Each structure stands twice: as C-alpha cells, then as structure tokens.
Amino acid sequence: MVLNIIPDELSEMIAKDECIIIDVREQFEYETGHIEGSVLVPMYDVFNDISLVKKYDGKKIVLVCSSGHRSYYTGKFLEENGIENIYNLYNGLYGWEIEEKPLI
Fold this sequence. Notes:
Mean pLDDT: 96
Helix content: 40-55%
Order of helices and strands: EHEHEHHEHEH
Number of domains: 1
CATH class: Alpha Beta
Structural class: alpha/beta
Strand content: 15-25%
CATH architecture: 3-Layer(aba) Sandwich
Largest sheet: 5 strands, parallel
Shape: globular
C-alpha cells in the first residue's frame, strides 16, 4: 500500500535519516528546485527500468513530484512489482512549498 505523508512527516523522516527521496519529475523540473538529498529518477524511466528504484528496496522510499499524482502512480507501479515501504508526498512539492519547506 502506498502511504501518503504530509510535509512535516517527511521532514521528520529526513531529520532521522530514515528514507530515500526519489523525485519522479523530469530533469527540467528538478532543476527548478528539489528537496535536498533527493535523487532524480523520472517516472517514465522507472516504468522502463524498475532496477533504478529496486536498488533501494528495503528502505523507506518517498516519492515526490509537483502535485503528488505522478509520484502516487509510480508508487502503485512499484508496489505491483513487489517493492515495499513506498510513501507518497501528499500534494507533492506544491504542498511542500505551501508549508514553507526548503528547496535547493
């Protein structure tokens, strides 16, 4: 099950070094701002080569995108392919910025 989390929950996970953050947006979107420490793996790259994310299996994987939609569907795809501990940043980076969380 893909679990939605809110920005404060993700901030806690980051502070405790409990997760890997995967940004599923496109390169040009990532370059406009992203969460520090996040790894860029665009959604269609995940769909074409699941090993790009499978290497993080066993860790808490938090998926992010602009609004939370692409990351949620990517999470469902990963779940259907046997990867567990998938989290989705609810409302994506839009919600992250509303909560005045930092992007680099």
